[in-house]
Amino acid sequence: MLALTASNPLDTERIAQRIAALVRSGDLITLVGEMGAGKTYFAQCFGRALGVTEPITSPTFNLLHTYEGGRLPMHHADLYRLERTGEIADLGITELLGVGGVALVEWGDVAGDALGSGLSVHLQTSEEVAPDARHIDIGWMGMSWETRWEKLRSSLSEWSRA
Q1: Residue 91 and residue 140: Cα distance in Å, rounded?
Q2: Which pTM does this prediction carry?
Q3: CATH code (residue 150)
Q4: Distance of alpha carbon 37 from alpha carbon 56, whole angstroms
């Protein structure tokens, strides 16, 4: 696991950019954190880094937005309002990844293993560092990031809190 500290929103943006530079079609990234931790902000920064030019908004009420026009299509989902895990399959995230793009799933931790393998980005406020600071812990499950993990670790080393 990578344990990072983003001292300000620009650091969070730069971390999202570095991850976006390494994603491939079919990648899944779950965004985990309390309300207000910065999940949607992270997704916005990530999308801009992919080249998405339209406004990236929270999918809380629509549950899923797809953004075209970047290096890869970005599917942005929010599981906060789901009442049962069976509804995850109804969103079709796995199918969307099968035809291309990358998926960012807010509140992805509620899905457990239902979403499959991918990168997990856990954001939490860190006011003891600074008012807008975030601790960002990054982990992965499955094989999809195995060959990219060291490159990711190296590209994010300046924010390491190891």
Answers
A1: 22
A2: 0.90
A3: 3.40.50.300
A4: 17
